[in-house]
Amino acid sequence: MSDLPPPAPSAPRCIAVAADHGGFALKEYLVGELRAAGYRVLDCGNRRAQPDDDYPDFVIPLAQAVAAGEADRGVAVCGSGVGAAVAADKVPGVRACLIHEAFSARQGVEDDNLNVICLGGRVASPVLAWELVQVFLAAQFSGAERHRRRLVKVAALECQG
Fold first, then answer.
1. Catalytic: which of 14, 44, 78, 97?
2. Rounded to whole angstroms, how far apart are CA atoms 149 and 131?
3. Among this protein's residues, is 78 annotated catalytic?
4. Which end of the chain, N or C, is more open, meaning fewer C-beta atoms within 10 Å of its C-beta?
C-alpha cells in the first residue's frame, strides 16, 4: 500500500501546540517542558488567557500545520479535550484523539499513525499530561501492512464530499 508514507526515520522535532481558555495553563506548562526537552515549538495560540475564545480558532491552525508538514506532531488542549479532537479531525491528513492514559498514547501512534494528541486542561494534571505527551512523541508508526491498509480506508473518507 503506497498511499501512506513509511514510518518516520527519527523522532519528531517540531511540535505544534494550541489551546483555548480551558487548556491555556496546561498548554503553557507543556510548551515549557517541550522546549526544555529540546523540541522546537510552533505555538498556534492562544497566547494569552482569554475567557471568551473558541478552541477551533487555535486547533484548526495547529491541525493545518501538522497536515502541511510544518510541524511533525501536534498537542491540542481545551477544557475536556473533546472539542479539540473533534475540530482537529476535520482537517484532512490529521489523525487526532483524546488521550487519558499511556497505552493509547503509544498504541495510537504505532497502529493508527496518530499525529495530534488532544488533552483536557480541566481533566489531566500537568504531570500526567507531560507523561502522555512524552509517550506520544516517543512512539513511531509501525508501518505494518494491516495498519496501512486500515489507514488507507480511513483516508478515503477525506476524499468523499
1. 78
2. 30
3. yes
4. C
